[in-house]
Amino acid sequence: MANATTVQKRVLKALQNQAADAQKMLNVQRASGIEPAQDRTQSFHARAILHTELAAAALAGGVPAEWIDQARERGTKAIRWNTNLFLRRAAPVDRGALVDNLRADIDRLARFTGIHAAYTHGTGRHDDTTASVDQTLTTLWRRSAQIGVLLGIDTEQARQHWPHPQWIEQASASAAGQTQAQLTQNWHAIANTDMTSYTAQSIALAAAGITPNPTIAAPDPLAMLDTLSGRDVGVSGLFSDAPGAHIGAAVEATRSQSAHTDYDADITAPMFSAPEINYPGIDP
Questions:
Q1: Per-residue pLDDT tens for 225-235?
Q2: 204 vs 52: CA distance, rounded Å
C-alpha cells in the first residue's frame, strides 16, 4: 500500500467499510426471513448511492480504478479495511486530464459567480431562486476543493492552474455585455443545474475525511458575492468596459473571508428517486 496517499487511503477505507456494512445489513435481513420495512429499504438505497458517488469522486480525484474495485470487492466479502492489506498493481492515472476536468469545474464556478453577482446587482432583489443558485455555487466550490485535495494539488499548482486574479477576471467577463434578459435567462439556468451527483460526492467525501483546503481552492464564491455586490467593490465597476479595474481589491477581499469547511452547514442532502443499488457483488 506504499503507493497510496493518506487521502486515498481514507477514501478506500470508506468504500471498503461501506460495502462491508451493506453486506452485513443484507445478511441480517435475509436471515430474518421478513420483508424489509420501507424505511430500511430507503436507507439501503441512500447508502448505495453515496457509495457509488464516492467511487465516482475517487476516480475524479486520481484513485486508481483497480484499487477502488478491490476495496469494494473486499467489502462485499465482509472484509473490513485493514492497513496491512495489499493493493493491486494499478495502471498509471492520467493526472493531467483529471486536473483539466477540475479546472473546467472551477472555470464554470467563475462564470456562475459572475452571473450571480451581475444579476442580483442589476435586479436589486433576491428571489425564490437565490437559495438554489447559492446552493449550486457552494456545492461546485466544495466538491472542486475536495477533489483538489484528493488529487494532491499543492499551493504552487493551484496558483498555476487557477490563479485568483485570473479567476476573478473570468467571473467579470462572464457577465460583461449581457442584457438583463440574458442575465435572467442564465440565472435561471444556474438555478436549474442538477447538482445531485456533486452534492452526494461532496457529502461522501466529507464523511471519508476529505475536506476543502482553502489554500488550494478557487475563491469562495459567496465571499466574492459580498465583495462584488458593493460592500468592498462596486459591481458596476467590476462589470464595466474595464473589468480588471478592481481585481486587486477583489483578490484582497477574498483573503479576508473565512472558507467553509463543514458541509452540512451549507449543503442540503440530496433527495434521491428510483435509485439503483450499486454495491458490486451484492444482490438486494
A1: 867 655 333 33
A2: 9
Residues 6 or more apart from 15 whose CB is under 8 A from it? 51, 54, 55, 58, 68, 71, 72, 75
Query: Could you report the per-residue pLDDT of 247-261, keeping only the tens digit for each?
Result: 444 445 444 443 444
In whole angstroms, what is the distance from residue 122 CA to residue 8 CA? 44
Nearest residue to 212 via CA among 272, 158, 280: 158
Nearest-5° Cα angle at 246, 242 to 251: 135
Ordered DSSP codes for 3-20 = TS-HHHHHHHHHHHHHHH
Q: How far apart are CA 145 and CA 266, in angstroms?
A: 14
Supply angle C-alpha 133, 105, 178, rounded to 5. 55
Rounded Cα gap, residues 93 and 231, in angstroms: 44
The grid coordinates of residue 9 equal 487511503
Query: For the whole model, what pTM was predicted?
Result: 0.81
User: From CA 13, how far away is CA 238, in angstroms rounded?
Assistant: 46
For residue 233, the SS3 value is: coil
- Reported residue count of the chain is 284
Residue 275 burial (C-beta neighbours within 10 Å; 0-12, 13-18, 19+): middle
Name the CA radius of gyration of the chain, rounded: 21
How far is 222 from 75, CA to CA, in rounded Å? 39
